[in-house]
Structures are given as C-alpha cells and as structure tokens.
Amino acid sequence: MKKTNKIILGLVSTFLLAGVGYGAWQVVGTYQATSDNISPIIVTDSADRNFKVEATRVNNTNFVFDSPASKGGKENLTVTYNIKAISNLEGFDPYNFNWKNVASEYVPNLTIDIKAIKNNVELLEDNPFFNYIDLPTFESISVNEWLNINNKDNGYNVDITLSWSKENLNGLNPEIAWQDLNETEYQTNFNNLLDAIDGVGFKIYFLAGNTSTLPSDPLTGNVSLIPSDNLAKIYSFIEISNMNEDGEIIAGTQNIDLYIDKNYELDGELTLTIDSNEKVNLELKESSLRINNENYNRFTASYTFEENRTYSFDWKLKEIIHTYKFNN
Predict the structure, then answer these.
(1) Which residue has the higher pLDDT, 39 or 279?
(2) Is 299 helix (H, G, I), strand (E, B) or coil?
(3) Are 22 and 62 in contact (CB under 8 A)?
(4) What are phi and psi of 98, to 5 degrees?
(5) For residue 318, what are the β-bridge partners?
(6) Alpha-carbon dihedral angle through residues 244, 248, 252, 255, given to the nearest 10 degrees
(7) β-pairing verdict for 252-261 and 236-240
(8) Side-chain half-sphere of 266: how many Cα atoms within 13 Å?
(9) Which residue, 171, 173, 256, 311, is the most exposed by fewest CB within 10 angstroms?
C-alpha cells in the first residue's frame, strides 16, 4: 500500500529534538479523546559548534486541547522550553565568546520549528488536523540574545504556542466558535474534531546555526517486501511503519504488519535477510485488529533497522484445509 505521508524530519549534530503529546480533550464531560505522550529525545553531538544544545520543558507541561478556562476547562496551548548551551570543549564558554569574529555561516543563531506528527509520520498540509489547529512560525533568535551572558545560569525561555484555526474557527476555541449551533451540528463538529486530533503529537526542533533547513532522518538502504512464494505474493502483504515511497525506512525500531488472507496461513517463518547474507527469523503475534478488508488476518512484529543497511523480507503461505465430520 502506497504511503502518502512524508517521513518526518529528524536528527543531526547541532539539533535538539524534543516532542510533546497532548492531554485529553473534554467538553462538558461528554466528548473526549486522548493521546500517548511522546518522550523527549535529546541529541548531544554538537562537536562542530564546540557546545551542545539542551532544552527542558518548563514545569513538564503538555499541550492540552480542552474547554477554555472561562468555561472551567484546562486548555493549554502554550508550552515553554528552557534552552541552554553546554560547552563540549575545555576552556570554551559559548556565553562569553565574541561571535562577531566568526564567519556568518557559522554563527549559532537559534532556529525553531515544530511539526505535527501521527504514528511518527509528519502530517501534510491537507491533513484534517489543520482544519482546527494552526502551528506557530518563528523568527531566528540572534546569538546575542539567546547566548547573552545573562542567560548563562538560567537559560533562555522559548514559548511554543499553538492556536485555533483562524480560517475555520476565527481563532476561537471550538466550544465558543460553535456555541450557537444546534445539538446535532455541535455533536457532528466535535466528533470530526476528535477524529482529526486523535493520536497527534508534536516534535519541536531547535537548531544552533544560521539556517532553517532541517535534515532528514537517518535511513536504511533499500527494503524489499516482495516474497518469493507465488501464493504469498497474491494472498498477503507487509506494511512497515515509517517507510517512504523510495523503499527506505527510518533507522530504529519499527512496527511490521503481515496481512494474510484468512484462507491461508504462514508456511514456516517470516525471514528477514540483511545485506543479502545475514538472516533473521521474526517472531509474529496475531493481532485482533483488522484492516477494512475483513478477509485478512493481521500479524505483528517489530525490528530495529540500522542506517544504510539493505533488508528483504521473505515468507511462504499454504492453503488452510478445512475438514468436516458428518453424522449418518
């Protein structure tokens, strides 16, 4: 099945990547949805700048899509990060350094970006989520501001503020924007809203550099999902999380789903070949979840893929033989 979302942008030496999930939306205790938090990931390798960037969520707060405070809700669309530069070089202090003597392309101005993601994949602009939420944009923060000597002990605070869609909600909380609708319209609108925001999290990028270009995540080499067995080609298929249209996967642990026509079963093991020589048998577990086509059974596994290595999956199927006993 062709992937239509693009792979999220990722990690490089001068980046710090931190993610936050969101809390429950709750409207008069009736309509609600929740999402798991995304644990922060800290990238500490900034040797080319002689310092690393650290970001800490102030008060460990999350974005919360809820009723506004005026209606007794816990809405929180602002999360604050405290940014610090930590020296990697003995005797070097980024807060007490004359950056005027450094070529402009190496001056570590602070660039910030935010991505909305679901299942670790960046949401495209036409995703329904953006019918309700506007992501912020940021101006580059001068090195003289964020690395000011006065910020050495306490760091520099950055506010990340989401907002309700100006185009569709006039920037108002939906409970206010839709308060004059009849009950049926009100329910329908909120059900659509919850479908759109369910499972969405955020990744926030901090770049100490003079560019706003974000790098790509580390990827595997080519990954083949075509089995050698003819029955397997026709009556089954594999999907892997975070696989792009070029047949590459983000390096790291990813979910593997094998779908098999209910009239067939796996004959042997699901085998993974690495770099055309090393073979690994993957342990599959049957899942109760189904896809839209109820003719398939779903089996799941996970595997940690490595950057630049090639992978190929192979498996065989056999038809399930049904036997029946008849009474005279």
Answers:
(1) 279
(2) strand
(3) yes
(4) -85, 95
(5) 265
(6) 60
(7) antiparallel
(8) 21
(9) 171
Per-residue pLDDT, averaged over 214-227, amounts to 80
* Pair of tokens at residue 23: 């809390």
Q: Which residue has the tokens 């990744």?
A: 203
Question: Residue 246 carries which side chain, given as an amino acid letter?
Answer: D
Q: How far is CA 186 from the centre of its chain?
A: 30
175 backbone dihedrals φ, ψ, rounded to 5°: -65, -30
The Cα-based distances of 275 to 226, 254, 306 in angstroms read 16, 18, 11
Exposed / middle / buried, residue 125 (Cβ in 10 Å: 0-12, 13-18, 19+): exposed
CA 19 to chain CA mean position, Å:
8
Q: In which element (H, E) is residue 281 found?
A: strand 278-282
Share of the chain above pLDDT 90, in %: 32
CA distance 173 to 164: 6
User: How is residue 243 written in tokens?
Assistant: 């696989």
Q: Are 82 and 157 in contact (CB under 8 A)?
A: yes
Name which residue leads in pLDDT, 193 or 52. Answer: 193
Choose from 42-56, 78-92, 297-311 the range with maximum mean pLDDT: 297-311
Pairwise CA distance, residues 133 & 113, whole Å:
16
Q: Which amino acid is at 46?
A: S
Tokens 């869609």 sit on residue: 165
Q: How many CA atoms lie within 13 A of 237 on its CB side?
A: 8
Six-digit token string for 299: 């089996």
Quote the DSSP letter at residue 99: G
Model confidence at 240: pLDDT above 50: yes
Place of tokens 């659509």: 192
CA dihedral (54, 58, 59, 63) positive or negative: negative
- The number of C-alpha atoms within 13 Å of 157 and in the hemisphere containing its C-beta is 8
Sign of CA dihedral 93, 57, 107, 11: positive
Residue in the structure block whose two tokens are 């924007």: 177
